Request: fold
Amino acid sequence: MQCLANKRILLGITGGVAAYKSAELVRRLQDQGAEVRVVMTRGSQQFITPLTLQALSGHPVSTDLLDPAAEAAMGHIELARWAELVLVAPATADFMARLAHGHAGDLLTTLCLATDARVMLAPAMNQAMWSNPATQRNQEVLRGQGVALLGPAVGLQACGDNGPGRMLEVPELVDGVCRAFPEPVLNGKRVMITAGPTREALDPVRYLSNHSSGKMGFALAEAASHAGAEVVLVSGPTSLPCPAGVTRIDVESAQSMLEAVHQRVIDCDLFIACAAVADYRPATVQEHKIKKSVDTDDDALQLTLVRNPDIVASVAALKQRPFVVGFAAETRDVLSYAADKRMRKGLDLIVANDVSDTEIGFNSDDNAVTVLGENLEQSFAQVSKQSLSHSLITLFAQQLDAKTTK
Ligand code: C5P
Reply:
């Protein structure tokens, strides 16, 4: 199925060496059914000619803001209104800086300011330029303005450096654009997602926690929201920005996560437990900071831990319960442990992943999982957590529908 059938995509090309990939990008977007028009900055024309892009897109390429002939054909405001999505690939550090500050000194920045359509950028630059605090500030500003960033990827660069700043490959860019036009598979549904780690206080300054970054849960929240759901994200401490349109409730401990979940879960159609909840917490939280003992030779400190409530199992045990999905992060015998966990906790589905693999484990940007259900075992190969979330949400919606129409 073509995921971009009849969609109008404006492709902006700025002056980076990755511009050579933009020609292929036009073709692959068209394969998905998109109509593509191209706007090029002056810098990009040093790397690839407008004639190439004109031949591939089947339309004249726009390059100048103040070109009377181009304005007479399809003026810049008309072009901004025509687009259903603007993708700038490659997006240079300079372009990002100008967009972040609202400049409109050339056609492409003007279009980005004038359009109501979603704007997506595929950054491409040297790793030091990407890591520079100025670029990092600009990307934060752009994200805050609702601009979506696809990538950059980490790897070998044209200049010989190795690091973050490579433009994503064309199939990943097409996938990212497709995700911006999701099927509304969760229209009218209420979804609650737990994400991130919990922190279990020992005393006023210390806690027990784990390495969960929250990336998978946040990506699922974004995908569910794009699929039309009303999403509540109950999150332990993370440094991630809340996806647009999602209601976020911040919690710290497992106990506070449990309370936040039960306050609102009753109205939900789908509950996804993605949080890495601490299984145990200190039996008592000391009122004052625990001091090193100075007058004994004892180097050991004994902590007594007590079991935390199992949040997902408590939701699955409700009389009036949503469709419940859990996660199982395992380091060996992944599928059998996950299947056992699904039964024990009373879950509809469980998403199993192997966290012993550092490429897909905690804190990584990618994941590969197998979803297990009563009569289901479906594997998803390693992709970005964003892309995986899109596929998982589609599967959860199908399974939820199948259960409700049973
Ligand atoms: O038992 P385990 O921690 O491996 O189970 C993982 C699944 O259970 C995840 O979906 C996690 O969010 C959920 N969980 C929970 N409350 C706990 C422990 C785990 O909701 N106390």
